[in-house]
Structures are given as C-alpha cells and as structure tokens.
Amino acid sequence: PQKTIEQITGAIRQSIRTMNDDDRFNLVFFSDQVRTFAGDPVPTTRENLEMADRWMRNVRARGQTDVHLALRQLLKRDLEPGRVYELILISDGNPTLGVLDTRELINLITRENDLAASIYCVGIGRDQDNRLLDFLAYRNKGFSVSIPRRSDVSLELVGLMSRLRYPIITDVQVRFAGQGMDRIYPLTLPNIHQGESFEVFGRFDQPGPFTIQVTGQSAGKPVDLTFRADLNDAPVGDTQVARGWAFWKLHHLYSEIIRLGERPELLQAIRELRREYDLETLY
Fold it and tell me: By the 8 A CB rule, do 218 and 168 touch?
C-alpha cells in the first residue's frame, strides 16, 4: 500500500542522514521495473541528501516486485580497500516477478554476490516470508530484522542504520582449537560493528583448555585476535545454551537444504534435533 511505501521512505530519509561524512549511498526502488537514485553510490553531501529526499517523495506503490533484478544491479566486486559494502533489502520477502522460487533465488543471489557484500534483510508486515529474508541474510554475512507492525518501521530502520554505522571487523572468521571441540555454529558471522557482541556455540567431549582465534579485516588491514581459556573454569550453562546451539545448527541444516536440496541425511539430522531439543521445524 502507498501508506506503507511512505512510512518506509520516510524512515530511509531519516536513516541516511545519520551516515558518516565519508560514507556513500544509493537507493533502489523495485517493482516491475528497477529505479535507482544514482548510477553508483554517491557521497553523503547535503546536496545529495536533499536530492534523495525529493526522489523518495515521488516513489509510488505500483506493479509487481522483482527482488533478483533489484539486487543483482547492486552487487559489486571492485571495492576500494578498506571500504565496507552493505546492502539493506526492505521487503515482505514475496517476489511476484522474475525468480520466484525461494531456494533458487537465495542460491542465485548468494552465488552472484560471492560474499562481496553483506546483505541485511528487513521484513515488513505480518505476511512476510521470513524463510527468504532470514536465509538470504544468513548466507551473505548479514542478519534479518522482522517488523510486523508497519508503524514501527521508522524506529526500527533508524536503529538498524545506527547499528551498522561503525564496522570494526569485516570478513570475520572464528576458529577453535581444543580437545574434542567441534560442531561449532554459526559457520559464517556478519561484520562486527561498534557496540555489538556475537555468540558462537559448540560441543566438546571433555572440559579442558581451548583457544579461540578471531580473524578478519579492519580498515583494509588484517586483524588477528587470540583468546585462551579453560572449560574447567567456566560456569555451568543452562538449557538455553544447548537450545542456542541447536538453533544455529538447525539454521545451518536449512541453509544446506537450500543449497543442496532435501537430502535424506539433512532431513534426518533435522528430525533428530527436533526430538532432542523440542524444536519447531519446517520439516
């Protein structure tokens, strides 16, 4: 509905004004055709922000939506060293034109992106397709935000932009070394931004010393952080730790189904997780 479009564009107008002076931005409106504000990302100058404001005031709800066509025009690989490229997809996750199959769409965009950009998904409305939005973000170094009530769009979107404003470590990899430590999830982590924390979950056979290594890039320079600890000194976890591990393993299994199809071993693993951890699953 046009009212929803106006709520979203109003939130975007507020959001882009919180960007840093050195940031660049572009805007894309996709229906049956794709309209871009600029050919390439532009600096956040006062003139560009005012032009973007006028451009968004003319956006009208019409036609169908082609998610793939919109995103593929933004996927770039010729990035300047030290610059972070992040895409925010605002949608109900229900494309009505172009590639419509959820699995095919996620695989296609992920392959074309090749982890060059982080893709963050913002789901709008009560009928959003969370499967598309959650796993498109998960496979592309991002995360998804669900906004069931359209009246909350402005607050949530401005909050997301503030959260992404200061990237600290990109291309994050976490490795563990320790006796019998394995099955660690999630496998792919989003960029780490200022003020954020992240969690990883794993299994171990016997408590003992272990090492965590976090690597990535910061302002175009390599980052390598190493921590050592001993599980014998750790507080005893509750059932929420186990369920957190099961949740992220389930995410991984769903992602593999999207990538490879409904293979029997993947479906069996999901059934076992459901029984052991009392989880609601799609299969």
Answer: yes
Q: Measuring CA to CA, which residue among 170, 183, 193, 177 is closest to residue 248?
A: 183
Pairing assessment for the beta strands 42-43 and 209-218 based on DSSP bridges:
unpaired
Provide the whole-model pTM: 0.79
- Taken in order 21, 198, 144, 138, is the CA torsion positive or negative? positive
Residues 6+ apart with CB under 8 A from 197: none
Q: Is 41 left (phi over 0), alpha (psi -120 to 50) or beta?
A: beta
More confident residue, 16 or 282: 16
CA-based nearest residue to 31, from 65, 1, 6: 65
The C-alpha R_g of the chain, in whole angstroms, comes to 20
- Taking alpha carbons only, the member of 201, 87, 184 closest to residue 136 is 87
In this structure, the number of other CB atoms found within 10 A of the CB of residue 280 comes to 6
